[in-house]
Amino acid sequence: MSIFAWLLVVALAACAAPDAVGALASTAPRKSAPFQTRNLIENHQKGLKLRVSTTSIDTSGQYVTVSWSGVEDPADTDMVAMYLADRDPSETWPMKYIWTSTVPNAQRRGAGQYFFQVYNYYEPIKFVFLRGAFGDKFIAATSENITSTNPQQPTQVKLAFTEDPSEMRVTWLTQYEGNPIIRYGLSKKDLSLSVTANVSTYTPADLCDAPANSTGWKEPGTINSGVMTGLEPNTRYYYVVGDEGEGPSSKVTSFISAPTPEDTVHLLALADLGQYNEDGSRNFAYWYQYYEPADEFYAIDTMQYTMMHMILAAVNNEAEQDGTVVTYPALHMEARTGKYHSAWHNGDVSYARGAEWQWDTYGHQIEPVTSRIPTMYTMGNHEYDDPNAYDSRFSTSVDSGGECGVVQQKRAPMPTVTERDMFYSINHGPIHFLQLNTEANFEPGSAQHDFAVADLAAVNRSVTPWVVVGFHRMMYTDSYYGFTPTSSQVVAADMRAAFEDLFFEYGVDMTWQGHLHNYQRTCPVYNNTCVDYDDEGVARGPIHVTMGHNGFMLTPFYQPEAPNAFDGQPTFASFGYCRAEVNRTHFNLQMLDSLRMELRDEFVLYKPEGWQLDREANLQVMASVTPVPFPMLIPISGWGAVVEKIFPLLAMQDLAGALEAFGPCKGVP
Fold first, then answer.
1. 138 and 164 assigned to the same domain
2. How far apart are CA 429 and CA 137, in angstroms?
3. Number of separate domains in the chain
4. What family does this chain come from, according to its entry (predicted)?
5. Suppose 545 and one of 475, 521, 561, 604 were both cysteines; which one would form an S-S bond, judging by CB atoms 3.0 to 4.6 Å apart?
């Protein structure tokens, strides 16, 4: 029997209750939600009080004590949820929530309190006490509204490069449009240079679908963005953002300007990070409604809760963003060293997926990194995918929750070709970065493919000997997904058909990708054949590195027979991130474990001084390679082998991490 089968048996045995199967099967209609209008009638209960310790916050991220009392017959299904104050709770999602049964002694006393972290959401918020059965919630009490006394406090500060290495863009949020200004200079005490910033925002009309423009909508506030110019290369600059009038300013922070081709460059490399609630409350995410066993947000300590997480963890593997809890502190520590020139995040950034306030959570949590390290983004499926997205490859995918790339690009502007063609390239020290959008069309003849061809043909390898291509979905993977047009193996085959010859001919050194929530890398490869290194130690082909293990729940699924490109190469299903140190002759990439910040993998690429691209030699190698068949699709009859062979590949520590999502077991209330 497989490990998975044993786990299922153990869980069922531990959780079994006489009516458990019936309870699990009796789900709401598909795509229903636990907070529909019919579920949220006003039925305030006499004697039940819901109070907040303050009706205003001075600082974004401040903690507020929410207390309740007078609860008659407390139930496991009681919950306290945070909502936008000016929206009907029946017409919007909760921003975060807790089950009151998780608060010590709350069930016994009918009273309790919880410390919620509240950001400046640019709208007032309130708390609601919800009671009732899983499919029949009602509002039993409502708190006073909470507003911000400091609406112009700059928040969610992000640095990014432009196409000009003597510039640096900085973007931040405030509630209202003011007179935004950036002051900067070579020391904290001399911020004598200044530039005004432009202001913008977006509305529901700018987004292309629900829930982002409906139940998940929240005002983004004012987006302020300006460009510091005339920067000397590889130099530390200090800056502050704020309002030219009497408004508040950010803290003075510093960054290192763009390096020259002769400099040693330090980088961070990320994908699939996400966010979490530091106060321990739970998020609400749109995709739960697509999985019938999870249609109602079951209370913790119940059979339904346990089985919901087991199904999502074992089958869908997108139950929670567990790893962010350990990855954010690691990234903050890295940022505080002050040594990094840039960070590169290749898609699936916040995982808001239409719950727009989760972009605020992400923006606050990543700010200690993005305010110090210029951070460059590409689009992932959870930022871009929707049938109505511009030039979308996928006619059925709704993974962005209706955001269609607009929210990501507005909140963190990149030097893209156009505002809608979200691909670009820049030189960064001795590296040329080409950043592509795998969610838009990339087939030969598309605007994106034409851009990639022209860009790689124009790279001066005497200036930038290294070329890295970043994108979200994988070009090589041993994921088992291989049946639908959006599946990993099908898209990987499409990408190889579009780009493999191009990347090999022009000597691309690495691709950085995410999407699969683990870490793995190929050998130097062409046509699924390892081409190894030449006599000087130079890799003959690109190494494809998947680094989607930053925060979202790990993907412990592998082909029963791994593709040849991964033969003998490391694969880790553990939370972590990558960093690199690069000069003209050496490219050192490391993968670290987030929890302990210990080195888990490292490799070094080498090029002798004066190395030049030899396209003719590359074409000869391509002609000589005999392709190795790629084990793409697994027939339905092969699922038994998948289950039997996949799970033994997992380290016990990774399996234990996945088990944490299953939750405790109790009978159905």
1. no
2. 57
3. 3
4. Belongs to the metallophosphoesterase superfamily. Purple acid phosphatase family.
5. 521
pLDDT above 90: percentage of residues in the chain: 68
Contact 516/474 with Cβ under 8 angstroms? Answer: yes
Q: Give the 3-state secondary structure of 561-621.
A: CCCHHHCCCCEECCCEEEEEEECCCEEEEEEEECCCCCEEEEEEEECCCCCCCCHHHHHHH
pLDDT at residue 580 greater than cutoff 80? yes
Angle at 94 between CA 91 and CA 99, to 5 degrees: 135
Which amino acid is it at 112?
A: G
First vs last Cα of the chain: how many Å apart? 32
Q: What is the pLDDT of residues 244-300, one digit of tens each?
A: 877 789 999 999 999 999 999 999 999 999 999 999 898 875 444 443 333 344 455
Contact 70, 48 (CB under 8 A): yes
How buried is 526 (Cβ within 10 angstroms: 0-12 exposed, 13-18 middle, 19+ buried)?
buried
Return the CATH number at 51.
Answer: 2.60.40.2840
Residue 79 lies inside a defined structural domain of this protein: yes
Q: 579: which 2 tokens?
A: 């960093």
64 DSSP β-pair partners: 116
With contact defined as beta carbons under 8 Å apart, do 482 and 239 qualify? no
Give me the numbers of helices (H) and strands (E) for the chain, helices first please.
14, 33
**Does 250 reside within a domain?**
yes
Q: Cα–Cα distances in Å, from 505 out to 508, 586, 626, 636?
A: 8, 21, 16, 38
CATH number at residue 493: 3.60.21.10
Look up tokens 């033994």; give the residue.
Answer: 648
Contact 384, 420 (CB under 8 A): no
What is d(CA 336, CA 295) in angstroms, rounded to the nearest whole number? Answer: 42
CA count, 13 A, side-chain hemisphere, 15: 26
Q: Please compute Rg for the chain using Cα positions.
A: 25
Whether residue 313 is predicted with pLDDT greater than 70 in this model: the reply is: no
**Any idea which residue has 């919620």 for tokens?**
116
Report residue 34's pLDDT band, with 50, 70 and 90 as the boundaries. very low
pLDDT in tens, 590-627: 999 998 999 999 999 999 999 999 999 999 999 999 98
The count of other CB atoms within 10 Å of the CB of residue 449 is 18
Considering the domain boundaries, does residue 27 fall inside one? no
Domain that holds residue 349: 265-652
- Residue closest to 342 by CA, chosen among 315, 377, 317: 377
Residue 158 in contact with residue 170, Cβ under 8 Å? yes
Q: Specify the range with the lowest mean pLDDT, choosing from 10-19, 41-50, 96-105, 460-469.
A: 10-19
- pLDDT tens-place string over residues 191-250: 999 999 999 999 999 999 988 999 899 999 999 999 999 999 999 999 999 998 777 899
Identify any residues that bridge with 196 across adjacent strands, giving them in sequence order: 181
pLDDT range class, residue 48, cuts 50, 70, 90 = very high
Residue 261 structure tokens: 């081709």
Place of tokens 């640019």: 122
CA 650 – CA 20 distance, rounded (Å): 30
Q: How far is CA 460 from CA 163, 399, 507, in A?
A: 16, 38, 12
| Residue 620 CB-density burial (10 A; 0-12 exposed, 13-18 middle, 19+ buried) | exposed
Q: Which residue type sits at 348?
A: D
